[in-house]
Amino acid sequence: MPKVKIDAERCKQCMLCVEFCPRDSLRISERTNLKGYHPVEQCDEESCTGCGICALVCPSVCVEVYR
Question: Coil, helix or strand for 46?
Answer without folding.
Answer: helix
